[in-house]
Amino acid sequence: MPLLECSGLTKTFGGLTALDGLDLTVERGEVVGLIGPNGSGKTTCFNLVSGIARPSRGRVFFDGTEITRLAPWRIARLGVARTFQMLRVFPELTVAENVVLGQHLHLGTGFVASAVGTRRARAEEAAAVAEAARLLDLVGLGALGHRPAEHLSIGQRRLLELARGLAGRPRLFLLDEPAAGLAPPNVERLVELIRRMRDEWRITILLVEHVMQVVMQISDRIVVLDYGVKIAEGPPAAIREDPRVIEAYLGSGAGRAAR
Question: How many CB atoms neighbour CB 229 within 10 A?
Answer without folding.
Answer: 15
